[in-house]
């Protein structure tokens, strides 16, 4: 097991620095507990990089990401750049493409201590445990674009290879879970949807012990709030995955609860980031919920650093802090970002009797 890692921190815009700061504090305590050495480099991305470096992500930052063991990112996006020719979000897309991070894992689990925070009924949310596997480097996000005042277009392209490789990530994950993959597409209207369905069905033949079903994206959006317990692994393309994951955030009750891992080929650095954005409405007020960023750091230890022991200890800290009602305003509580991070740090590895 390795015990020394180079982490690139990209806090970004809005609440990004607040939640990355909180996650870093927790990572440091976890590292100390396990005798792991973390070396950090911090760089700019998004609006702050446009302001200070002339573009949303510099070549040096892309290279630093490639040279690191993993990237922990906060968020990008700021209203100041809404009409700018290059937007902060372009930096994140470039980084994902640069690292070949094609598989975005977004776990969504109901948290017993948060059943009251969800706008959905307790009996609908209770026991939910879904893994959204979102394709991250293809589709309309990366197709040819035409910008214009009279006409605009975003071409959505998928190749067989792009669908095949992300489908395998979903089926492999399902083997370690409840062995069910729901593939979400729009095959009744879109050519990419029909290719998606065909390739996923082909890949499923290599996984005879995993059950596959196909659901159209509009119906999937409905099932996600009507009966989320029916899903185990939900596999989908880039744009649908973006939309469905924000919808899924309402199962635990807040955008501030959803972590993510963006992974490429084995051995390449992953990008770990909360699913939420820069939340300009609450930035700088100490109100941001840091659980998603902290849980993203845990995913980093599990998925690219090969230290599931550290990941579990952080997750235990999170569970105990949630049960002890260390909740920010989005979850109906009154704790600050820092108070939540301190509580998680205090209970790292609580299950091992370390607290
Ligand atoms: N990965 C990313 O960097 C990322 C993801 C989504 C959106 N964005 C960008 O963020 C900007 C704002 O977008 P938006 O407002 O649509 O989405 P958002 O996720 O930033 O915010 C949506 C709502 O959720 C709340 N929220 C989000 N995260 C929270 C947290 N950790 N704690 C408490 N409340 C939280 C916000 O206050 C807001 O009310 C845009 O520029 C968008 O492009 C970036
Ligand atoms: C900021 C934006 C480019 C990004 C996306 O659409 O992928 C975000 O919404 C996300 O979900 O990670
Ligand atoms: Mg999104």
UniProtKB/TrEMBL annotation:
It catalyses: (2R,3S)-3-isopropylmalate + NAD(+) = 4-methyl-2-oxopentanoate + CO2 + NADH. Residues 6-344 form the Isopropylmalate dehydrogenase-like domain. One of its GO terms (cellular component) is cytosol. One of its GO terms (biological process) is L-leucine biosynthetic process. Keywords: Amino-acid biosynthesis, Branched-chain amino acid biosynthesis, Cytoplasm, Leucine biosynthesis, Magnesium, Manganese, Metal-binding, NAD, Oxidoreductase. Pfam families: Iso_dh. It is found in: Cytoplasm. Transmembrane segments: none annotated. Pathway: Amino-acid biosynthesis; L-leucine biosynthesis; L-leucine from 3-methyl-2-oxobutanoate: step 3/4. NAD(+) binds at residues 277-289. The record marks 141, 186 as: Important for catalysis. Mg(2+) binds at residues 218, 242, 246. It is an enzyme of class 1 (oxidoreductase). Its EC number is 1.1.1.85. InterPro entries: IsoCit/isopropylmalate_DH_CS (IPR019818), IsoPropMal-DH-like_dom (IPR024084), Isopropylmalate_DH (IPR004429). Substrate binds at residues 96, 106, 134, 218. GO terms for molecular function: 3-isopropylmalate dehydrogenase activity; magnesium ion binding; NAD binding. Binds 1 Mg(2+) or Mn(2+) ion per subunit. Its main location: cytoplasm. Its cofactor is Mg(2+); Mn(2+). Belongs to the isocitrate and isopropylmalate dehydrogenases family. LeuB type 1 subfamily. PANTHER family: 3-ISOPROPYLMALATE DEHYDROGENASE (PTHR42979). Homodimer. Catalyzes the oxidation of 3-carboxy-2-hydroxy-4-methylpentanoate (3-isopropylmalate) to 3-carboxy-4-methyl-2-oxopentanoate. The product decarboxylates to 4-methyl-2 oxopentanoate. This is 3-isopropylmalate dehydrogenase.
């Amino acid at each position: 097991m390795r015990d020394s890692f180079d982490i690139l921190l990209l806090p970004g815009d809005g609440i990004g620095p607040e939640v990355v700061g909180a996650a870093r504090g927790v990572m440091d305590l976890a590292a100390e507990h396990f005798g792991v050495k973390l070396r950090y480099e911090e760089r700019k991305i998004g609006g702050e990089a446009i302001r200070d470096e002339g573009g949303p992500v510099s070549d040096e930052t892309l290279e630093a990401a490639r040279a690191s063991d993993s990237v922990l990112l906060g968020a990008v996006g700021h209203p100041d750049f809404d009409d700018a020719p290059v937007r902060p979000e372009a930096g994140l897309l470039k980084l994902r493409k640069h690292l070949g991070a094609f598989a975005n894992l977004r776990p969504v689990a109901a948290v017993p201590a948060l059943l009251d925070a969800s706008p959905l009924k307790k009996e609908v949310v209770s026991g939910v445990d879904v893994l959204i596997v979102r394709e991250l480097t293809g589709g309309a996000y990366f197709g040819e674009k035409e910008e214009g005042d009279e006409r605009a277009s975003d071409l959505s392209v998928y190749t067989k290879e792009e669908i095949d490789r992300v489908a395998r990530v979903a089926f492999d994950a399902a083997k370690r879970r409840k062995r069910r993959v729901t593939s979400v597409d729009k095959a009744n209207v879109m050519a990419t949807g029909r290719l998606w369905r065909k390739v996923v069905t082909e890949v499923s033949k290599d996984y005879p012990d995993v059950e596959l079903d196909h659901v159209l994206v509009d119906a999937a959006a409905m099932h996600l709030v009507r009966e989320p317990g029916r899903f185990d692994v939900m596999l989908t393309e880039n744009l649908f995955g973006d939309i469905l994951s924000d919808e899924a955030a309402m199962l635990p009750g807040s955008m501030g609860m959803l972590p993510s891992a963006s992974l490429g080929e084995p051995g390449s650095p992953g990008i770990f980031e909360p699913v939420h954005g820069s939340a300009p409405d609450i930035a700088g007020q100490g109100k941001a919920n840091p659980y998603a960023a902290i849980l993203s750091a845990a995913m980093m230890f599990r998925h690219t650093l090969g230290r599931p022991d550290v990941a579990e200890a952080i997750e235990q800290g999170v569970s105990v802090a949630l049960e002890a009602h260390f909740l920010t305003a989005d979850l109906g509580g009154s704790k600050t970002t820092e108070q939540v991070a301190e509580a998680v740090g205090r209970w790292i590895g609580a299950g091992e009797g370390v607290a």
